[in-house]
Structure formats: C-alpha cells, structure tokens
Amino acid sequence: MHKVLTLNNIAAEGLRRFPSERFEVAADIADPIAIILRSHNLHDMEIPSSVSAIGRAGAGTNNIPIEAMSARGIPVFNTPGANANAVKELAIAGLLIAARNICDAREYVKSLAGTGDALNKAVEAGKKQFVGFELPGKTLGVIGLGAIGVEIANAALALGMKVIGFDPNITVRSAWQLSA
User: Fold this and answer.
1) Alpha-carbon gap, residue 35 to 52, rounded angstroms
2) Could you list the residue range(s) of the whole structural domain that residue 143 is in?
3) Spatial CA neighbour of 3 closest among 60, 58, 52
4) Confidence (pTM)
5) 113-124 pLDDT, tens per residue?
C-alpha cells in the first residue's frame, strides 16, 4: 500500500485517481511515499526520507524547496492550468464589477430607505451615477500568456475588447490556443 500525504484540501476528483486498493491518501500519514499540496509551505517542514515525489495542485512551486528536493533526487510536479478557468472567471468578474460600478451601486441601494414608489424614485434618481462603461472597444493588457493569461485574453476578446498580450517566454502551445 502506497501512502500519500495531503497537506491541503485536494479536490475529490483528483484524489479519485488514487485507487483505494493501492493507495492510502490522508492528511495524517507517517512515512508517505508522496506529498500532495496546494499552498502549504514546505520550506518550513522536514520532508520525510520516505518521500519520493511531491505534487502541487497549482501552477507555481514557490512553496516547495526545489533545490533541496532536487539534491535528494525527489521530483516535483505541478499542475499548470488546472485552475485557469476559475482564475479567468474571477478576472472577468473583476472587469465587470469595475466597469459597471457594481460595488458602489450595491452600497447605494443598501443605504436607501423606504418602500414602494418612494424606493423606486430613490433608485431611479441615483442610478445614473453608477452607469460606468461598456467593455467592447476597451483595451486589456495581459502580462503572461500561460494557461491563465490565454483564457483571460480569449474571454476579453469574446467580450469585444482589444487585447494586448506580453510574454517573452510564450510557448507554441499557448500561442496556438490564443484566439485568432
């Protein structure tokens, strides 16, 4: 039985890839053969000598002592792009919130008193100050055209925005994924 230590909440969909008849996967395991983490800081942890691989459920590896693991012959894997859609959705939500003054408008509506026609009149009187602007024709700069940057650039193009991207290390795969 192979023991896998999880140091953060890992999606059940990912953990299903470890058949229970061959793997014991838990947050409290002694002598694990592998570690799976998200944001846990491994720099502050003594890595057991039993570990032969480390997998990060995320794009970066700044929370893993790569040099020390390399010196021990322990490969470190990550999952770039695994959360790209979620990050894209948050970025697009941020664009919409800012362009349409949604936070300020919400606070304005929360501050209103009254009911019925009086409330309707107050809403109508104040809503003009929160008009904002439309995104089509606006320019978005995207720095970094990896999995997340490509998703954001393509979504912004679909919204009618002009997109300028910069990535001195863009891969051919990422370039092919960009909308024409």
Assistant:
1) 9
2) 84-177
3) 52
4) 0.70
5) 888 998 988 888
